[in-house]
Amino acid sequence: MSTSTEDDVRDTRRSGPYVAVVRWMENLSDTQFAYLLLTPVLLLLALIAFWPLLSTFRMSLYADSLVGASALGEFVGLQNYVELLTGQRDVVLVRPFLDLNAPFRSALTVTLIFTAVSVFFETIVGFGQALVLDQEFRGRRWVRVAIILPWAVPIVIQGMIFFLLFQPNIGFLVEPLQNWGVFTATPLTNSVDSVIILVVADVWKTSAFMALIILAGLQSVDRSLYDVGRVAGASKFQQFKMITLPLVLPSVLVAMLFRTIGAMRVYGIIETVSGCNTVPSLSCLVVSTFRGSRMYGTSAAIAFITAALIGVVVSVYIVKYADTEEASG
Amino acid sequence: MATESETEQGPLSRWVDSSIQNPEKVYRAMFYVATIFFLFTTLFPFYWLLVLALTPNDAIANFGFPPVPNGFNPGAFIEVFQQVPFHLYVFNSFVLGIVTTAVVLVLASLAGYVFGRLDFPGKAPLMLLILAVSYFPPAAFVIPLFRLFTGNVTLFGVAPPELFNTPFAMILPFSALFMPLSIFILSTFYGQIPDGLEDAARIEGTTRLGALFRVIVPLSAPGVATAGVLTFISVYNEFFFSFIMTTGEADQWAPLVWGILSYQGQYSELYNLMAAASIVGVLPVAIIVVVAQEKIVSGLTAGALKE
Fold it and tell me: Domain check: are B148 and B220 in the same one?
């Protein structure tokens, strides 16, 4: 558009496609330039995220087609969802989708139990670790390395560790726990025992993530508030309850949100420790339904219910978060 | 109790007395107990792997507490590469991690520049859209992607190449799913570079993209390193797509997941090799954590608290 700037004057002496592209790019408005730069990102996300999501939803409205060339049967509307939620579809699944009589062996219930229990303990352990890391002491750097280390362990190795800890032939834990009546003789094939082991494994690996976010919250607390508390005669415990807790609550909620999302999609650790037949989480059921038996419609419906459930949880947290922000601000 | 401590001052009651005088001492003691407890619980599983790896396989049974190796057999760490080509699986994971990290850093730099430094209509909804991707479970993407990569879907009338069992079947989903975090980290860093530096570069005659990659990205090196480290670790640790998008042969780009699982499947009794393989697989990330812990901490907290 303009040739008055220095580089344009210089560029006019050159020519060729490169210069043409550069000049075209220089002359875009900010908005055009922004969308140009976002194009590759949006293309990738369109192919890998948005198209698959919509396609999953579309599939979930079609019947399964177990024989024949086409993957999907006729259009059935919400029938897949209705039959899943009422239990009519359970007979064709590896494990029931929703069966309140066997909560540890049906997908929806076992996922919710796993999520609630593990996030609860992760919050407590993570808070404890954050309080330790908040202190000044020699060797703090190495304690922090030790606490972060489990977070960086690949899921498959995390699974292998807990498989080896609770394998009856070799583990030193199984026999005493069985004698105390906590576990059965083969905890890795018992659904209740396996869920407990999986919770322990998840707490071991992901508490560090909680700890780091809560620690960031702790360190942003204005230290002079504690001086005020001390002058007012508050004990350490009272200071914790009246100052620390309300001020770090928002970051605790954020950490819990991320861990809840993570726990609800649990899959790899189950596959490695005890197998999807023993602990059929929602993700497990999606995979076994579409890979094992080609029931694309059913599988897509389960996948979409999983996503919707996470969506509900996210909104609950966001509302809660807004509340605490209002209260403290 | 009170009379007892008056007559004979045992070490415990003396400690209790002085702690009542001085509560700081109790908090200090609680702190040490908690620290030792956390160190023990996080590190013990690694010690258990070491015990199993060093014990000859036929001697693995009846460990007491605390477990100690029944014998000394460091040969397991060599056998682990002979039984299956474990080094190939680890190598595949490294290649997947490095390529994904490179793709993510380039694309997230473009997007981070846009979100960090430009104002344009539709900015907030677009950011939200990208954030939403990381909320969805992988299971919600996997069915269409699996069918696409195994050549069962035509897009716009064209049959795309069959990517199943190639690195692309994993790199594409990894890049898309781990990119949002990097975009947020980089947009924060890029947003902090003063406008004057970019203007100066542009007046000197740099193009807009040149200013991004020659001025803004180098000045944000710590942010780029943070995003890179987190992306690499995420890929190395990923299970879902690594497990589903290959059939598990080392020469067909199966990553670490399959290397470890092959010990669980084919050689289900070789516990010492399972443990040795796990230790070998953990070492690369353990080294990264020791070297780059500040980056990890700042990246995780920035990424999470940004929202």
Answer: yes
Residues B241 and B188 both lie in one domain: yes
Q: What's the count of helices (H) and strands (E) in chain B, helices before strands? A: 15, 0
- Domain of residue B109 covers 76-306
What integer best gives the mean pLDDT of chain B? 87
Q: Which residues of A touch B145 (CB under 8 A)?
A: 48, 52
CB contact under 8 A, B48 and A164: yes
Residue B128 lies in a domain: yes
Q: Model confidence over B12-50: pLDDT tens digits? A: 888 778 777 777 788 888 889 999 999 999 999 999 999
Q: Phi and psi at residue A3, in whole multiples of 5°?
A: -115, 20
- Looking at CATH, the fold of the domain delimited by A79-328 is given as MetI-like fold (1.10.3720)
For residue B67, the chain A residues in CB contact (below 8 A) are 172
In chain A, which residues have their Cβ closer than 8 Å to the Cβ of B256?
Answer: 154, 156
Amino acid at site B197: L
Is B89 in the same domain as B125? yes
| C-alpha distances out from residue A31 to A7, A8, B114, B117, B122, Å | 22, 21, 9, 12, 9
The encoded tokens of residue B206 equal 């740099």
Q: Say yes or no: B44 and B88 in one domain.
A: no
Residues paired with residue A75 on neighbouring β-strands, in sequence order: A62
Q: How many domains does chain B have?
A: 2
Q: Flag whether B64 is in a domain.
A: no
Confidence of residue B307 (pLDDT cuts 50, 70, 90): low
Question: How far is residue B302's CA from residue A220's CA, in Å, rounded to a whole number?
Answer: 13
B109 and B255 together in one domain: yes
Residues 266 through 305 of chain A touching chain B, CB cutoff 8 Å: 267-269, 271-272, 282-283, 286-287, 290-291, 296, 299-300, 302-304
* A161 neighbourhood in chain B, CB within 8 Å: 45-46, 48-49, 278
Structure tokens at B168: 């692309």
CATH number at residue B188: 1.10.3720.10
Per CB-CB distance under 8 Å, the chain A contacts of B146 are 290-291
If you count them, how many residues does chain B have?
A: 307
Domain boundary residue, one of B59, B85, B107: B59
Instruction: Tell me: do B230 and B258 sit in the same domain.
Output: yes
- Peptide bond preceding B66: is omega within 30 degrees of 0, i.e. cis? yes
Chain A residues with CB under 8 Å of B177 CB are 48-49
Distance CA(B256)–CA(B2), nearest Å, equals 62
Report which of A230, A155, A116, A251 is spatially closest to residue B261, judged by C-alpha positions.
A155
Mutation target for A interface from B49, B118, B136: give the one with most A CBs within 10 A.
B136
Q: Are B233 and B96 in contact (CB under 8 A)?
A: no
Are A286 and B143 a contacting pair at CB < 8 A? yes
- Domain(s) labelled CATH 1.10.3720.10 in chain A stretch across 79-328
Question: Could you tell me if B95 and B21 lie in one domain?
Answer: no
Q: Do residue A154 and residue B285 have CB atoms under 8 angstroms apart?
A: yes
pLDDT in tens, A167-204: 887 878 888 888 888 888 888 888 999 999 999 999 99
Q: Does B89 share its domain with B230?
A: yes
Domain assignment present for B70: no
| pLDDT tens column, B227-286 | 999 999 999 999 999 999 998 888 888 999 999 998 887 767 889 999 999 999 999 999
Q: Do A164 and B46 count as a contact with CB atoms less than 8 A apart? A: no
Q: Nearest residue of A to residue B120 by CA position? A: A31
User: pTM of the full predicted structure?
Assistant: 0.89
